[in-house]
């Protein structure tokens, strides 16, 4: 039914669950709640129930994607909530496009201050996406039921079996921090197997068969006279309201041709010499995506620390250092690494945090941004551009939903461990013009936990226009995921965490969950542990006598403050490189293995301006008010692997005095805009501040089952030499973090 004909709003309630009982005080735990599983557990599988669920998922998603663009519950409109085509959905107020509401009271409650419905760089980032995933899951489930009843016309026991499979199915997630095992990419960080195949097997009642894989891409369901998909920017008459725009970049730079595409791509869109583009019909260049994802995670593969008798040294699965993403997840859950809701949930930076924050530059949203970039591709000239790399069109790629389901999983894990830190971050006041924390900036207020999460209704009503701020989900409303009808496999408690009545012992449960996280996501600490066991390494000489005695390690991190809108709303990446010749910046960029991390600025829709009138002016508000963002790159593992590489002459120890001198001469960075093109000068990013810190990591404590908890990190100190006299680098005379202010710093200690 077309949106204009709809009598009622769409109530997002999740898939119904019957006969479950909550058995806990605070942490959500309701035995029997259906589980969201990793996509590789859903496919491939020999289990009969799982095969039914896989079949229904593929066919339900296929049916969903074929719906016309003017249907409210179409894939196109649901994906479009995230950005383009910037239209209202389900009777909600239009996505905001102007920062200046006149009068101010006309601003809809819950409106994103940064433009569009989707929340980025606000502390509602993870909770806004929770009902979004629920909507997607619910519509696929509804299509499953139509397939069983209307398409297959099943009755009797067959109908019961397939209906039970549909009711127990939940949206799968893609755990991109875990290595894949399928042929050709064994032990690599890669796209899931289910997302690289052009055709996939299904197992309907009529017999096994194969279907085109709906997880590969999304093509426009609107066709031309020949039956070919139309470009997303040229919808047929009567449906032009849903045209997608190109995403304009700065003047002189080629726009991102989303309007010309008729299908989504991963590393598939290229510009040509004549000013046009190729790959517009949709290309799944999964090989480049896999290579890029693995290169980003396995930043250095020079040294294998595992001993010959270690099972991880199986020649089929050559052992490697922990991936960047795995180590980041481990750190994210390390005690006190992110000790407030604000530091965990969002990339948003505020000036008042400068003299307190060290590890808190690593956030869920920051990790999420980097995965968007490496999954989609951000280069029109050499490697290819993809939809996942750009906010307004990212949700059209089916892998977006697997990625964000994992983000929701990580959110649930953090909530389970930090239930009482829910929305505990107080909004800092706006600094005045003379505030010593630097350049004048206005702090745009974040939503509260009770602000509506537009445009997601939780009730069905036939009068949305009379009370547009009523009946919407809020962050508080979606706090308990079990009440939304799902849980995650990693949240299933071990028997040791249950009492005799099956109720959850929350303290034991949290420790066991931390231990499970530590074993699942290999950390810097585990890498160090393997090195200490290696007889070939002279520990005191390599690590230092104090670290050798106490089994601690020097931990090095790069913290970054950056401006999402430095390039007028175009996304860009800050690449960090380590290596090259002494004091020769350009030589560092010659060897791909020297790329050791990045901060991806997932900017969003282009702000309304002279470049593109009618764009996202709230994004312009964020830009104009200098609301900045933060990110973090861990340096420790790249430093170790370079120091252990016998062919590498510049660094032979990770003791502080050697490392700092090495970073001074060999750590460099560069700014690269989305779409490719030449490196941009640091002067185009005047609010960027890059700092290096050295701290200590150590293991502290075990779970009740005697398993290690994630290591802890503290005692960080700023190191000025690696960034002094480098563009955008922190200097020793900085007015907030300079040497004369060291006594004012309140960095966390052990």
From TrEMBL:
* Ranges annotated as biased composition (Basic and acidic residues): 736-750
Alphabetically sorted, this entry's keywords are: Copper, Melanin biosynthesis, Metal-binding, Monooxygenase, Oxidoreductase
Organism of origin: Fusarium solani (Filamentous fungus)
Cofactor(s) in the UniProt record: Cu(2+)
Enzyme class of the recorded protein, top EC level:
oxidoreductase
Report domain Tyrosinase copper-binding positions.
119-137, 397-408
Q: Know the name of this protein?
A: tyrosinase
| Documented EC number(s) | 1.14.18.1
Specify where the region named Disordered lies, as residue ranges: 86-113, 427-447, 720-750
Example GO biological process: melanin biosynthetic process
Keyword Metal-binding, does the record have it? yes
Q: Which family is this sequence assigned to?
A: Belongs to the tyrosinase family.
The answer on whether this UniProt entry bears the keyword Oxidoreductase reads yes
Gene3D superfamilies xref list: 2.60.310.20, Di-copper center containing domain from catechol oxidase
Pfam families, per this entry?
Tyrosinase, Tyrosinase_C
